[in-house]
Design brief:
The protein is α+β, with helices and mostly antiparallel strands. The chain is built from eight helices and 21 strands. Strand 10 (about 115-120) and strand 11 form a beta hairpin. It starts with a strand and ends with a helix.
């Protein structure tokens, strides 16, 4: 015998009494109870499950499995003649607001623009619907939101009705049904007719309000729209107000001037980043010149350098700067970064040495990857040898290359 579903008879029911049908464990070892009747809504139709207590014991999950509604308990129930279930009403009412709000918003998009909703997700903080459209404009979102909130202000009734498959011809459903029996319709007269197994308030006014937050393009011809309803709108407003207030202190500007203050800060940051980049370039050119001067003093035609935790981009700039300033040198730079080794090798234009070939010779020694061209190459891999040993191998490769 199926459990009597009190949440369909009265979605506002906050507590109930019942008898225990059985206690068991699922395949994961989770303890659950099956009751003769229940007001606990099980996960389904895009709506999360209820939580609450059964004789004071927390009910943390509710599922409908193979026709029975399982109430998962944190500890066993004692044997008694009667059991009292108490619903976490704040959670339930939030779900009712979000679910009904989704019906209203989806119907608004459908009625105004013919944009169908293909999926719905009721999350902990926000909700989403996926609209089967290639893109959504600001104006369309604003119009749909306005119509949805107008339906809320009109406080229209939200009706539920069980119908047969044959009776469906009397209703203009917003989307096709996924079931052919035990069909339950949720109806907002003259606005929305939709098959749904979730819980809803008895009128649109109890949804309170709907606010679209943002949207993003998903796969082809799909837009995911984020929104909140009811008390979540106030929560979003509260959090955003706190954030704005904190930003006014950081930016030292009143709320109405935050945009201009932020733009100034962004521009200042860009200017500073440009200055830092120019100074870094000058420092690298100075460092390259020092390497060249030392090589000249030592009468060396190869410049070698071992570094620790340097950005590879800096080594690239160093090598290119040195070979541009002196066209008759080879440059080998090695970088040790934690458990990795990186290297850059380059040559001046007066030399006839293939740097890509040299890189290919040493990469197997560090299980590495890399490449380049005959004038410049780079690579990186595992630190299987020391930086000094890698430098020795790079230096040897001129002989290796000449033999090829």
């Amino acid at each position: 015998m199926a459990t009597e579903k009190l949440y369909y008879q009265d979605p506002n029911l906050r507590s109930f009494t019942t008898q225990l049908r059985k206690i068991d464990q699922d395949e994961k070892g989770r303890l659950y109870a099956v009751l003769e009747k229940t007001a606990f809504y099980p996960t389904g139709g895009g709506q999360p499950h209820d939580t609450g207590t059964m004789n004071g014991i927390p009910v943390y999950d509710v599922e409908e499995v193979e026709g029975e509604i399982r109430h998962y308990l944190q500890e066993p129930l004692g044997l008694q003649d009667e059991y009292v279930g108490v619903i976490d009403w704040e959670r339930r009412f939030d779900h009712m607001q979000q679910h009904a709000g989704q019906h209203i918003l989806s119907a608004a998009f459908e009625n105004q623009f013919g944009y169908p909703t293909v999926s719905f997700h009721l999350g902990k903080d926000t909700c989403t619907i996926d609209l089967h459209i290639p893109s959504l404009s600001d104006e369309e979102a604003e119009q749909a939101e306005k119509l949805a909130n107008q339906m809320i202000l009109e406080n229209r009734p939200i009706e539920t009705k069980w119908v047969t498959k044959e009776e469906l011809t009397q209703y203009m459903l917003r989307k096709d049904l996924s079931v052919s029996e035990n069909i339950r319709l949720v109806i907002i007269p003259d606005f929305d007719y939709n098959g749904c197994g979730g819980t809803h308030p008895e009128s649109t006014g109890k949804v309170s309000s709907i606010k679209i937050l943002h949207w993003e393009k998903q796969k082809k011809n799909m837009v995911r729209l984020y929104f909140v309803c009811g008390n979540r709108v106030l929560q979003q407003l509260h959090h955003k107000h706190q954030m704005i207030q904190s930003m006014t202190s950081i930016l030292n500007a009143p709320q109405e001037q935050m945009k201009e203050a932020t733009q100034r800060l962004v521009q200042q940051t860009k200017d500073l980043e440009k200055t830092v980049s120019e100074l870094k370039t000058q420092l690298l050119e100075y460092e390259a010149q020092r390497f060249i001067e030392k090589a000249k003093q030592d009468n060396e035609s190869t410049i070698k350098g071992i570094f620790f935790n340097r950005p590879i981009t800096e080594l690239q700039q160093l090598a290119k700067s040195m070979t541009l300033n002196r066209t008759d040198i080879l440059v080998y730079l090695v970088n040790e970064v934690e458990n990795k080794l990186q290297f850059v090798c380059a040559r001046g234009q007066d030399l006839n040495v293939n740097m890509n070939q040299i890189a290919k010779c040493v990469l197997p020694l560090i299980n590495g990857k890399g490449g380049g061209n005959d004038a410049f190459a780079q690579g990186g891999g595992v630190r299987t040898i020391s930086g000094e040993e890698l430098m020795e191998e790079l230096n040897k490769q001129v002989t290796c290359f000449n033999k090829i």
